[in-house]
Design goal:
- Residues 150-244 form the P-type ATPase A domain.
- It comes from Streptomyces monticola.
- This protein has 28 helices and 21 strands.
- With 832 residues, the protein is α/β, with parallel strands linked by helices.
- An eight-stranded mixed sheet has the order 8-21-20-19-9-16-18-17, sandwiched between helices.
- Helix 24 packs antiparallel against helix 28.
- The chain is elongated, with a radius of gyration of 35 Å.
């Protein structure tokens, strides 16, 4: 074909009667429609240019005046934290302060092997900083307005400038693919279509005419033109959303807050304990000053679960790496934990459950029309549009073009008339005029086909009517008397993985809520095809109560919501949170920004707006909703395992505090040097906990982290402390002379090691071959230290005689049996 008509058959989503619904009518009432019947003359030629010819734009003097008045596009600051903020937040923590002070002290009074505990600071801080800087680097240039270089016409000449240089009143040229960077009024238009889906949630482009409003955050999908900037900087719509979302907030982490709570109490315990230890070790016993300080620090350091802090960061970081391989970017480490705790996930239909494309599912003939001829008509209509939308692209894919047909005139789609059209020379001397659009507009109210169309719409199908007109396209009454020829039934293309993903959430007891700006019936039909529970109960968001409690009740009872405005999305998230739900929100448009920010976890599609990617904690770079189960599973693995191994660390905290108090009360020398507890922590906690934290775990994350772990840690630590201190007192009575203190410490260390190994054996259940090997390897490591001479000297550990070592073993066995009994009693008495 030599000429091409501009036909827009898609329009906005049809309502239950088959008529496309004007997206702007509900969400943006500033899109005046062109008068019915106004046709473009000549296919592909512009007939909707702004009057007055090409405009010159502002003069240099006018630009200078506006700059002087401050009428410039001062884009809001980015919503991500600066590198300095990231470093500061990771370095200046309570944990680093406590360990850091003790580390510095030990550097002056003790050999290297007693300062190893301090290097945990470097590892923990480094992991946090590197991960957050990595995420920041990936998204550093993502802000709501982006780094677009708009073309501005000034003094009659067009030139590219930075978005920050735009002033009020500038004339900005736009073409296919260009982003609208400020709000304005359309001044020139040539078949200009703008996609406002990121603002309104509507998937279909809007045809713009001179005088129409264009808004920042939207972009051009077809045609071209120019618009005059009427709102710049913080006045612009998208910028206002970004401004409100610009305050960076870290996702809540119960693990981190729980550990912080434990550290807070440990800090208060450390103050009197440290004073008591200093007095008992230095004043009462009058020992060597440096050695007294070393033993004092040796009593304080194990109170701090420093390994738990490091392991949490390592587990999160490894989870981030694993998800990164699946094209999932985690911007904040605790976001993995957050999604593992989610019990409600809010989804959009377009782009999440459905793909951008559509398919023709049926061509239904009307009034005895010839199907072969109708297919030729549809092929010609499809080929006549140089920029087909999803609906027309489906027709193009289904019906090839007939080369002998030539377009002579076209009528673009308008939301006012709800149809488009074209006239053709058929190649055999015949001419014909065709209309394609909403059946309820092109058919009389009494037509029996409307009942069938209603049934199709209830199934979520889009129905277009092909009709032959006997009037000219520029006749305002061209649709009157048009003869219906066929119904074109279209279906949105479902994501192949959407059903499996929804099924996964259902199995994991996570409620899925579909929240869309599209027609509620259509959204419900799509959800029904994916077997979403509750898809048969759809709610038009315009009927939702404003009261938060009433809204929350409706949200709990239903799963599918249509015609949802951006503010309502935010209100709905708040309403669900008010009922104690942990909410994840997925989105890709500027209209989702505030809801994403308010949700417990925000998940953005990689192809979405820069604003959503900047405020979301998780970005699906491959735009695949099917990645979410992997994120949830990874989160559950991390949280379940950390909760499990945290018991190991906190048992150590409890027995360290109690041993220190026993030392102060009895006025004896402290049992261990820091190197002794470093060895014990490494073999019974650090190394095994690392492997246990990476093991598979599908258990759903449960709340009350501190309570869950302390119910084991307190009795377990108390038994370990009493048993170890008893062994130490027996050893003090048994040994005397040179080397006695080292022998006493070695006996106590043996008892504590065996008890800690039994706690590890309990935590490692159920046993697998690698868990048994892990426990065996840790035992072999301790045995190696006790029999190799240079390791004995390095750690100052040497068992003397046989009586006391076997007594230490007997005490440890009795303590292990008591711990086994206590843990089982706790399980029955205080279930999680």
């Amino acid at each position: 074909m030599t000429q091409r008509a501009h036909i827009d058959t898609g329009g906005p989503e049809p309502d239950s009667t088959g008529a496309p619904i004007d997206a702007g009518a509900e969400l943006d009432p500033v899109h005046p429609a062109p008068p019915p019947g106004k046709a473009d003359k000549g296919c592909g030629e512009a007939s909707d240019k702004g009057g007055g010819g090409r405009r010159a734009g502002l003069t240099t003097a006018e630009v200078a005046e506006r700059v002087a008045r401050g009428e410039v596009n001062d884009v809001p600051v980015r919503s991500s934290r600066s590198a300095a903020d990231i470093v500061r937040a990771n370095v200046f923590t309570r944990f680093n302060l406590i360990i850091g002070v003790l580390w510095v002290i030990m550097m002056f009074v003790a050999p290297f092997q007693d300062t190893a505990f301090g290097y945990v600071i470097l590892a923990n801080t480094g992991i946090g900083i590197i991960q957050e800087l990595r995420a920041k680097k990936t998204l550093d240039n993502l802000a709501v307005i982006g780094e677009a270089k708009p073309t501005v016409r000034r003094d009659g000449r067009a030139a590219e400038i930075s978005t920050s240089e735009i002033v009020l009143g500038d004339l900005i040229e736009i073409g296919p693919g260009d982003k609208i960077v400020v709000d304005g009024t359309c001044a020139e238009a040539e078949s200009l279509e703008i996609d406002e889906s990121l603002l309104t949630g509507e998937a279909d482009p809007v045809l713009k005419k001179p005088g129409d409003i264009v808004m920042s955050g939207s972009f051009v999908v077809a045609g071209g033109g120019a618009f005059t900037a009427t709102k710049v900087g913080r006045e612009a719509y998208a910028a206002q959303l970004a401004e409100e979302a610009s305050r960076f907030t870290l996702v809540h982490s119960e693990l981190r807050s729980g550990i912080s709570t434990i550290l807070k109490y440990v800090t208060w315990l450390m103050i009197p304990t440290s004073i008591g230890l200093v007095i008992s070790q230095l004043v009462v016993k009058d020992d060597n000053f440096k050695e007294s300080i070393a033993y004092t620090v040796g009593g304080i350091v194990p109170m701090i679960p420093e390994g738990l802090v490091l392991l949490t960061s390592v587990a999160f970081a490894i989870g981030v790496i694993r998800l990164g391989r699946k094209q999932c970017l985690v911007q904040e480490l605790p976001a993995i934990e957050g999604l593992a705790r989610v019990d409600t996930v809010c989804l959009d239909k377009t782009g999440t459950l459905t793909e951008g494309g559509m398919d023709v599912t049926e061509l239904r003939m009307l009034n005895g029309s010839d199907e072969t001829y109708v297919r030729k008509v549809l092929g010609a209509l499809g080929e006549s549009d140089p920029r087909p939308n999803a609906s027309l692209q489906a027709i193009i894919d289904a019906y090839p073009d007939s080369e002998e047909w030539r377009c002579t005139e076209s009528l673009p789609f308008s939301s006012a008339r709800k149809y488009s059209g074209a006239s053709f020379s058929e190649g055999n001397g015949e001419s014909s005029t065709w209309l394609l659009g909403a059946p309820d507009v092109l058919l009389p109210d009494s037509d029996p086909a409307l009942d069938d169309i209603e049934a199709l719409n209830q199934q979520g199908l889009r129905v277009l009517l092909l009709a032959r007109a006997d009037k000219e396209l520029d006749d305002a009454a061209v649709a009157d008397g048009a003869a219906a020829q066929a119904l074109v039934v279209l279906e949105q293309r479902l994501r192949p993985d959407a059903a499996d993903t929804l099924r996964y959430f259902e199995e994991q007891d996570v409620k899925a809520k579909v929240i869309s700006g599209d027609n509620a019936v259509s959204v419900g039909a799509v959800a029904g095809k994916l077997n979403l529970p509750g898809a048969d109960r759809t709610v038009d968001a315009r009927t939702l109560p404003e009261d938060q409690a009433e809204m929350a009740k409706v949200l709990d009872e239903n799963a599918v919501f249509g015609r949802v405005t951006p503010q309502q999305k935010r209100d709905m998230v708040g309403a669900m949170q008010s009922k104690g739900h942990t909410v994840a929100m997925t989105g890709d448009g500027v209209n989702d920004v505030l809801a994403l920010k308010d949700a417990d976890i925000g998940v953005s599609m990689g192809s979405g707006s820069e604003a959503t990617r900047a405020v979301a904690q998780i970005v699906l770079l491959n735009n695949s909703f099917a990645t979410l189960p992997s994120v949830v599973a990874e989160g559950r693995r991390v949280i379940g395992n950390i909760t499990r191994v945290a018991t190991l660390f906190l048992v150590k905290t409890v027995y360290s505090v109690l041993i220190a108090l026993l030392v102060v009360c009895t006025q004896v020398e402290y049992l261990f040097l820091p190197r002794h507890l470093t060895l014990l922590s490494t073999l019974t906690i650090g190394v095994p906990a690392f492997f246990l934290a990476l093991a598979p775990n599908k258990e759903r994350a449960k709340p009350h982290f501190v309570r869950r772990v302390m119910r084991y840690a307190i009795p377990g630590g108390a038994v370990a402390a009493v048993a170890t201190f008893s062994t130490y007192l027996l050893a003090r009575a048994h040994y005397s002379g040179a080397g006695a203190r080292e022998a006493e410490t070695s006996a106590a260390t043996l008892t504590l090691f065996l008890i800690a190994m039994w706690v590890l054996a309990i935590i490692a259940r159920p046993y697998t071959w690698w868990r048994i090997c892990l426990i065996g390897a840790m035992g072999a490591g301790f045995l190696l230290v006790m029999v190799v001479p240079w390791l004995q000297d390095f750690f100052k550990l040497k068992l003397v005689g046989t009586t006391m070592p076997w007594s230490a073993v007997a005490i440890a066995v009795a303590a292990a049996a008591l711990i086994e009994f206590v843990f089982r009693w706790v399980d029955r008495k205080f279930p999680a």
